[in-house]
């Protein structure tokens, strides 16, 4: 069974009204059940030369599920399970691999293979789960109202939200690596899969669950 980690009131640090409910009320339409995995693989599931889409995170999810079919990463394939994922683009993984190996790699496939070689599949699994907030469908509207919130992830760790500007918006996610640049939400890649129980927001760096 896929493990679900509850989102407590303290995890958001806000009134429960900020988070869209998993089931619709009488005055709203029911949320759909298209999974984020379906969305991520809809472009053909191949590496390309566009560093600003999500090929590497997609391949990472597939690699983890291939090696560990019972992994909690499988949450992303079950559209009936509400969650919010903050997904790094390919450039974000290129930067991460540079930090880990000291070298720049100029193809997405090479970045992915170097990442796998540097940290292994178990670490990739934990990093992916750190990007997932279970049991909550957090829309852009919720996110811009979440300044100071602490989110608990499917990995078991936390990160905090800092909203600098709610109109553009400019939103920072402060992770557990105190020595590196924190990710920001990509204002042009918000509310991916909106209208469904699973929603995603693009981010420009990889969230780090520990000090690397």
Question: What percent of residues adopt helix (DSSP H or I)?
Answer: 25-40%
Mean pLDDT metric: 88
Order of helices and strands: HHHEHHEHEEEE
Structural class determined from secondary elements: alpha+beta
End-to-end Cα distance: 31 Å
Biggest sheet features: 3 strands, mixed
Q: Provide a count of the helices.
A: 6
What's the alpha carbon Rg, rounded to whole Å?
A: 16 Å
Coarse morphology: globular
Question: How would you briefly describe this protein structure?
Answer:
By secondary structure, the chain is of the alpha+beta class. The chain has helices at 9-12, 36-40, 55-67, 90-101, 108-130, 140-143; strands at 83-88, 132-134, 150-152, 158-165, 170-174, 198-203. The protein has a three-stranded mixed sheet. Strands 3-4-5 form a three-stranded antiparallel sheet.
Characterise this structure:
With about 210 residues, this protein is an alpha+beta fold. The protein has helices spanning about 10, 35-40, 55-65, 90-100, 110-130, 140-145; strands spanning about 85-90, 130-135, 150, 160-165, 170-175, 200-205. Strands 2-1-6 form a 3-stranded mixed beta sheet. Strands 3-4-5 form a 3-stranded antiparallel beta sheet. The longest helix has 23 residues, at about 110-130. It is globular and about 45 Å long. About 40% of the residues are buried.
SSE diagram, text form:
Elements: H1 9-12, H2 36-40, H3 55-67, E1 83-88, H4 90-101, H5 108-130, E2 132-134, H6 140-143, E3 150-152, E4 158-165, E5 170-174, E6 198-203
Parallel strand pairs: 1-6
Antiparallel strand pairs: 1-2, 3-4, 4-5
Helix pairs in contact: 3-5, 4-5
